[in-house]
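Hi R.,

Quick one: here's the Four helix bundle protein sequence you asked about.
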Amino acid sequence: MKLEPANSNIQVIEDSYCMAVSFQKVREYLLDDAKFLRFTCESLSQKLTRLSKNSSINLLYPLENRLTSYILDTGTRVDGTNTLIFDENLTEITKLMSTSYRHFLRTLKPLCENGVIKKKK
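And here's the predicted structure, written out as tokens:
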């Protein structure tokens, strides 16, 4: 069996619990359990299918659409207003959206000029 470290980023938006099972226990009790393996395969298959569909759809949209959707999803709402605060590392966002920093800035400019977003500092 090939063992590789997990690579995952998780961001929660409310209090959550995280559970872990030692791999030694999984190996000892679950790798010979057909129901567990079937459940795991089905779950991974569903996730892969969903990720594939989302990725193909997202890549077809222009950067402006992807960026504004990202801001709406990750921005922090200011109570009692129609305002979102978006304070993220732009270099990381460009990597996430598979674009160059220069193209990203060219996309931000008209959003600022049209009053869709307001840049501070």
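Residues 23-59 form one domain.

Cheers,
M.
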